[in-house]
Design brief:
Elements: H1 2-13, H2 18-47, H3 55-63, H4 71-86, H5 106-119, H6 128-149, E1 155-156, E2 161-165, E3 168-171, E4 177-178, E5 181-191, E6 194-201, E7 209-213, E8 231-235, E9 242-246, H7 260-271, E10 278-282, H8 289-301, E11 314-319, E12 323-326, E13 329-332, H9 336-348, H10 364-377, E14 385-390, H11 399-415, E15 418-423, E16 432-435, H12 441-455, H13 458-462, H14 465-474, H15 479-492, H16 496-504, H17 508-522, H18 525-534, E17 541-542, H19 543-553, H20 557-564, E18 570-574, E19 579-583, H21 585-596, H22 600-635, H23 639-649, H24 653-666, H25 671-684, H26 688-701, H27 706-718, H28 722-734, H29 739-756, H30 763-780, H31 788-810
Parallel strand pairs: 9-11, 10-15, 10-16, 11-14, 14-15
Antiparallel strand pairs: 1-2, 2-3, 4-5, 5-6, 6-7, 8-9, 12-13, 17-19, 18-19
Organism: Caballeronia concitans
Protein name: Tetratricopeptide repeat protein
């Protein structure tokens, strides 16, 4: 890849003007830094031990959803020390070091470039002298990066892309080249668990847009990890980026068309902080209310809503449901008050991965008071918080319910934060109205044409504009009916008149039943079984639950999703890594009728699968809840500790350390807090020496804490003290950590000690012992353990690393200078 960037550098310098050169040079440097940061992430994932679920890596991976120019610099600044300490001591020498003849090291020079990019090209004015100066500076920066980090760039062969880090070969799972051209990554996103990279080819003459599908095991996936409900999102702004804590789902469609008037109304409402607290997006079913709201707020999070106005710091999205998992177990909401109060509790997950029982002992105004107190304690005002409540009409079915709903939302809007509501009704509350009705004819026509191309509906593609306009008018320019028509034509290969006839002569329910029967007839028997099991489950449906059913039936999850997308069986809330599924009532009745018609033995088999999947969902929830309760919640009880956690997520490490110190002073006997602080010092700051006293203190305060002993063991191993680390791991196993995990950690420690001194007398015995311990880890693993698969993959990774190192030592292929750096 080094040759690719040097070749493009020559092309950029040959352009006729400094402005053109600077533009393309910036693209080259952006691609170069992205490639280096991806390679560094892959190296850490593949050749270093996972620490604390690698939450430090996850924040970097999440931000590739909208990568800024500064993100690769932050990643490399954080990971270069980790790679030097555990993989290769000579990794990117010159990143921190200042070479002779230079006034600053490479990382400082790159930070200055990022500041220039944000200040001048992005949000300021570039005059001719500055353009010429920074064209020269950027070209020199590219040369310096290639000189310092060229060896860390992946190599490209006909079959694979891989990086050589010292003596370790790191396969790269993320596409970084297309043919002999580099790539600029614009977005890494997941929809319903399927990961895609969107970007452009690095070319001055043809920078075409490209999209790649990623393997399920790519570095951005959060498989088998505890995923917090809320995530920080970096939003580009005119002055500097702004962080928003949110759980806003992804867009519902890639073919959003029009609605300019409605989007402008939402923007005007958002800007009018002083006078308007509530916004009501209302209209009949099928006009796209939820689609509109998600489009607007996804645009907001991507920095695509123009204007210099105050952004909320917290955005919560709540979909009205009848059942859901809570800390009290599986709850069935019986009335409007239960569901409304749950929307407030859902918002509080932005501060903690688990809510204590005290949140379920209060309701009504007492619950609102408690939430206000927490937000105020964290430094948030009511103008910093925004809550989106979707489909409120499902919560209130009577006049009394509607009045209760209006009263509750008014209280939330006055005291907690601003509120956006979607509903089919004009709810009884004072709110800024955003009516959503039929599309203008021109927008309906554009939507029909776009959908025709996407679904491959030949009759729509071949039809003239007058015929398509007539079809839009007949469908009342209703997006749902337009989508239904195009899907039907594409599936049946029929013409527009036949499709319109099928749609227009039926009532809404008759139309859906017709579409259900049509889709059912095209499904395989196995996919039909999946739907019949889903309507038999007691658990709320999400991606993991659906995946369990698909596994039991023997169907690929992707095949089921394809069938699900053929018609309107369910509403889907896309959370990126996973999704929530709500099958509509008419579809539930349809599938239940189908299930009643199957033979008794077959129906019994489906019921057994449903029972097993419900049991798996309950076990998964309990493990998740216990993890959060036992380790995270206890460590972050005080306001200082919670603030330290938030500062860490914001990468304000100096502030986080100060807050941790204050939290320790406030709770000097909190063992979990000491363990979390030790983990922060070790994992985030890389200061094992500073972490040691806090890790030891945690075990003294709670001698039965498996987490405390595990963290102490990791700190001791970081110091190279195998005996002390082993003793701590033994205690961790005694008090609750799995043998699989503890054996694995002992093996990993021995591998890294041997790698630091490959030709010492103890290197080969250590590697032999490491191989034995990895084998013990694999044999002792239990599939019922939540982390079984993650630990199994980690064991497989280190089996390969250990045996490769043994072979290299025997062949005298390991260079002493390629050993990891002693810490």
């Amino acid at each position: 890849m080094e040759k690719i960037y040097l070749r493009e550098l020559e092309k950029a310098l040959a352009l006729p003007s400094p402005a053109e050169s600077l533009s393309y040079l910036s693209s080259i440097l952006r691609s170069l830094l992205q490639s280096l940061s991806i390679a560094a992430l892959e190296t850490v994932v593949q050749a270093t031990p996972t620490v604390d679920d690698d939450v430090d890596l996850k924040q970097f991976c999440d931000r590739f959803a909208q990568p800024s120019d500064g993100l690769p610099v932050e990643i490399l600044d954080a990971l270069v020390p980790r790679i030097r300490g555990m993989v290769f001591r000579g990794y990117m020498t010159g990143w921190f070091e200042t070479p002779s003849g230079q006034n600053e090291n490479l990382v400082t020079a790159l930070v200055n470039w990022v500041e220039f990019r944000n200040k001048r090209p992005a949000h300021g004015v570039l005059d001719a002298p500055t353009t010429e100066l920074w064209a020269n500076n950027t070209a020199e920066l590219i040369r310096r990066v290639v000189a310092v980090a060229g060896g860390a760039l992946p190599s490209v062969t006909s079959s694979a892309v891989a990086a050589h880090v010292g003596d370790v070969l790191i396969p790269i799972s993320i596409p970084l080249v297309l043919g002999d051209q580099g790539i600029v990554i614009g977005k890494v996103a997941s929809r319903k668990g399927v990961w895609k990279v969107q970007g452009q080819v690095l070319s001055w003459t043809d920078a075409r847009e490209i999209t790649f599908d990623l393997a399920p095991s790519n570095i951005f996936a959060a498989e088998d990890k505890i995923v917090d409900k809320f995530k920080w999102r970096e939003v580009p702004r005119s002055s500097k980026s702004f962080l928003i804590l949110n759980n806003v789902p992804g867009r519902q469609t890639a073919n959003f068309v029009g609605r300019t008037k409605e989007l402008d109304k939402l923007k005007d409402w958002l800007m009018d902080i002083a006078d308007s607290r509530t916004c009501l997006v209302f209209g009949d079913g099928g006009f796209g209310k939820t689609t509109l709201v998600l489009e607007f707020f996804n645009n907001l999070l991507e920095g695509c809503v123009e204007g210099d106005f105050k952004l909320p710091s917290v955005i919560g999205f709540y979909t009205a449901k009848r059942t859901k998992w809570t800390e009290e177990g599986l709850v069935h909401f019986k009335g409007i008050s239960d569901a409304m109060e749950d929307s407030v509790r859902e918002l509080m997950y932005c501060f903690s991965p688990v809510l204590g029982k005290e949140w379920f002992k209060v309701d009504g105004r007492a619950l609102i008071d408690k939430a206000v107190t927490v937000f105020s304690g964290e430094g948030f005002t009511r103008d910093d918080v925004l809550l989106i409540i979707d489909n409120t009409e499902t919560l209130s079915t009577s006049q009394v319910d509607a009045e209760e709903l209006g009263s509750f939302i008014s209280q939330v809007a006055k005291r907690i934060g601003r509120v956006v509501i979607t509903s089919r009704r004009r709810e009884l509350l004072a709110a800024e109205p955003v009516p959503v009705s039929q599309l203008p004819e021109s927008e309906a026509l554009l939507l029909l044409q776009k959908l025709g191309k996407e679904y491959g509906a030949r009759a729509v593609i071949q039809a003239g504009e007058p015929r398509l306009r007539q079809a839009c008018q007949q469908l009342m320019c209703k997006p749902l009916l337009i989508d239904t028509l195009v899907r039907y034509i594409a599936r049946s290969s029929s013409g527009i008149p036949e499709g319109l006839d099928q749609i227009l002569r039926k009532t809404s329910d008759e139309l859906l039943e017709f579409l259900y029967e049509d889709a059912w007839a095209r499904m395989t028997a196995a996919v039909q079984d999946v739907f019949m099991v889903l309507v038999s489950l007691a658990s709320p449906l999400d991606g993991k639950c659906v995946g369990d059913v698909c596994t039991q039936i023997g169907v690929q999850h992707a095949e089921f999703q394809s069938s699900l997308g053929e018609t309107y069986f369910a509403s889907i809330v896309d959370q990126g890594d996973s999704y929530d599924l709500e099958i509509v009532e008419l579809a539930k009745d349809f599938f239940r009728q189908k299930k009643r018609r199957v033979p008794g033995e077959e129906s019994e088999r489906l019921d057994k699968i449903a029972f097993k999947v419900d049991k798996q969902a309950t076990e998964r929830y309990e493990i998740d809840r216990n993890y959060r309760m036992d380790r995270v919640a206890d460590g972050f009880r005080s306001e200082y500790a919670k603030a330290a956690k938030i500062a860490t997520i914001k990468k304000e490490y100096g502030k986080a350390k100060e807050l941790y110190d204050l939290a320790i002073l406030e709770e000097p006997l909190n063992a979990a807090l000491h363990e979390r602080y030790a983990s922060f010092l070790l994992r985030t700051l890389g200061k094992a020496t500073d972490a040691l006293p806090y890790a030891k203190r945690a075990t003294q305060l709670d001698a039965h804490s498996a987490d405390a002993w595990l963290t102490l063991g990791l700190v001791q191993y970081k110091h190279g003290d195998l005996a002390a680390g082993d003793a701590a791991m033994s205690k961790a196993a005694k008090y609750g950590k799995t043998a699989q995990l503890c054996f694995l950690r002992e093996a990993i420690a021995r591998y890294h000690v041997a790698k630091q001194e490959p030709y010492s007398k103890r290197a080969m015995p250590l590697l032999k012992e490491a191989d034995r311990l990895v084998t013990l880890s694999v044999k002792s693993g239990m599939s019922s353990d939540f982390y079984y698969l993650k630990n199994r993959r980690e064991a497989e990774k280190y089996t390969h690393l250990i045996r490769t190192l043994v072979t290299q030592i025997n062949r005298r292929e390991v260079l002493a200078e390629n050993a990891a750096q002693r810490t």
